Amino acid sequence: MSLQRIYVKQFFDGESFIKNKVLSIENSIIISIDDDLQQYDEKLAGLVAPGFIDLQVNGGGGVLFNNTLSVEGVNAMLLAHAKYGTTAMLPTLITDTVEVMQQAADAIAAAIAQKVPGIIGIHFEGPHLSVAKKGAHSEAFIRPISAQEWQILSRQDLGKVIVTLAPENVLTSDIVKMRELGIHVCLGHTNASYAVAQQAVDAGATGFTHLYNAMSALQGREPGVVGCALLNDNTSCGLIVDGYHVDFASCRLALKAKPKGKVFLVTDAMPPVGTKDTEFAFFDRTVYLHDGKLTSTTGELAGSVLDMATAVRNCVNYLHVPFSEALKMASVYPAKYIGLPAQYGRLVVGSRADFVELNDQQQVTSTWIGGAQLF
């Protein structure tokens, strides 16, 4: 790619708001930031911020990852979420057969090999979960780890990998093995006691999937997985700030309890994002959208139609988080958690030119990946 110069009237670099600079971009990377406002190829009048990074995305654009295990499928998901500022994501596989896990891994490996914009890895949400806290996951597919799963998890062509598991159903030695493979282990869909959860953290689990949801609650005599998540300063938590999955007061409590930088935004998004669809097939059920909430025919919440831009606005409007901090929760913090703080989540010399342009209402007006406009 030839040199590209973009004049930004105001941008957030991941730490500070800066005015009137020109970003020089070459081969998807910001190579300089200067004050020469006379020479540029494009001008962005809105606020430019680091692109949003979503580490839990089940679907979008009418696509459910489980059902569309292809490069085309994950690209359609990314394009749907790019409308709302997402520039990097982990397509997330809901508990399914080992054959589907294999196909999902193949699709992600192919997307990364083909340099599909924004696809940086995969999130296996299950299948090693707790039946008692399965949520919308299918009990029929919940199982112990087998040699077949280890073959998939041992691959080195999948980019960044998150595995969500229930520690009461997984050996501590398995968590150690996953960490040795470079996998980010998150606890979720678990009914574990505090002691068992803490044992998993001590073994190398570093995160908690959609905090509060599908995990044993904090109680006076039993802190549960929620207590473990809030108490361990070295762990990170994904948080769905849509007002349906977690009460806004509970979100604020998490932000108060956790060190700054240890809570990041996720959408847990499903196929309707970026479409006008109001229902979709989900395994042997149907999921319906009503008043912004997705509910399965069997009664439970089934993901969300949240997008990252809305999650950022919700943090500002309902959690009373400073705008700069909400932007970090959508970019800087997930980049740090996934182990990509140098390339992603910031707009500095040497980082990727992945950014979102926002208007005064904090709505997305354009989205760029590697200096190319996708939306």
Automatic annotation (TrEMBL):
Active site positions: D268 (proton donor/acceptor)
Taxonomic lineage from the root: Bacteria, Pseudomonadati, Pseudomonadota, Gammaproteobacteria, Alteromonadales
Chain sites annotated for binding substrate: A136, N213, A214, R221, H245, L301, A302, G303
Pfam families linked: Amidohydro_1
Enzyme Commission (EC) number: 3.5.1.25
Free-text cofactor note: Binds 1 divalent metal cation per subunit.
Binding site for Zn(2+): E125, H189, H210
Cofactor needs: a divalent metal cation
Record's catalysed reaction(s): N-acetyl-D-glucosamine 6-phosphate + H2O = D-glucosamine 6-phosphate + acetate
Alphabetic keyword roster: Carbohydrate metabolism, Hydrolase, Metal-binding
Chain ranges of the Amidohydrolase-related domain: 48-371
Record's protein name: N-acetylgalactosamine-6-phosphate deacetylase
Any GO BP: N-acetylglucosamine catabolic process
Biological source species: Pseudoalteromonas translucida KMM 520
InterPro entries, per the entry: Amidohydro-rel, GlcNAc_6-P_deAcase, Metal-dep_hydrolase_composite, Metal_Hydrolase
Phosphoprotein is among the record's keywords: no
GO molecular function: metal ion binding; N-acetylglucosamine-6-phosphate deacetylase activity
Family stated for the protein in its record: Belongs to the metallo-dependent hydrolases superfamily. NagA family.
